Request: fold
Amino acid sequence: MAVPAGVDLAELYIELSYVDATRERQRRPLLDCVTARFKDVAPARPFRWSRGERHFSGWYWAATTRQHVGFESWLERDRLLLMDFDLKVVGIASQPFWLHWHDGDRERRHAPDYFVRRADGSAVVVDIRADDRIKPKDTEAFETTRLACTQAGWRFERIGVPDAVLLANVRWLSRYRHPRCLHHKAGDRLREVFAEPAPLLHGADAAGDRLATLPTLFHLLWLQELTAEGLSVELLGPRTVVGVSSQRTESTAMRLIEPSRRRLREARRRPGLERSEGFVTGVLAEIPHSGDEVGLLNHGHPAPVLLHGGRVRGVEPSEPALPLALAELCGGEGRTDTVPFPPGATLLLYTDGLSEARDRAGVFYDPAARLTGHDFSGPDALLDALLADVGHHTGGRITDDLALLAVTRSGGGEGP
Reply:
């Protein structure tokens, strides 16, 4: 590593400069910047296009962020495309900041290529350079970036040329990454056809006219709701085996709950009440447009209640999970449970303002017990009866905020 003698990397003082949300340029000590939203910042330095340049710069529309992200070479473009395809990535920013340090002789600076926020809340700083193009000064810059990331609690990755077959397949699928390629009726039919793995073109034909189904099929492969066998082994073709992904629900859930986790992490760094309330419970329900099931991911929240034919049951999670922002401390992401949700059934979700409502004797309200044996004409009737009953139970003294949501599966099994 090209660092002069006498310079102790472990004690290296590093500053960051970046463009904040108000388009003002900031320069601050590294440890004062760890809470900055770098996945949302503008590039710290401009992208240039000049005649005769050996590299190629441009902008890539990322489906993950629905924004344009810059690149300065074909290699960066390829890696950016793969990051966009990665379900664990929820945010990408190019040239997010300058790192400033002194190497013992002069001040140095380096702008990493990308800042990546992952679904588990972690951050990764990425530099992209082919192995055979790394010079001694690059080695020093990468090592200093790695040190800065260690101090900030981020990961650092220096990555090079990707696998050619995987890249070719993902590049093809990226042509269908835009949501306009998804036609919902064709998507529902494709999910049914590929519930059992089948050859790609055979399944597209079974789902309808291939001219209509193929764009949606490739979009679902991009979303990884459907998966293709051997994506990194052989090029996609008519006989590629395609099936429904078993990991998509968890990945979708992580993307949806990540904003809440991020706000909670930021709140814990503030003084006062917000710091003591640095976690929250939550339940995520995924109700497919067709079918008779519902997926539930519960992070320490009161169990939803399922009502059907006068019978009522609480839907407890198969694997208990900690509340948001606490689960990540022990690496727990929770597990999505799939439970029957037949036509005519109603799913009730509620906050603890309902289950912790007490009567004058201090007895908690039990929604499952109170609703057992009753039939309701629809979700509105259920909520009206529930509010009246909890009001009667508490004598009108509801002391906590109360949120209720009821969803009834329509008789034809075509969605809520």
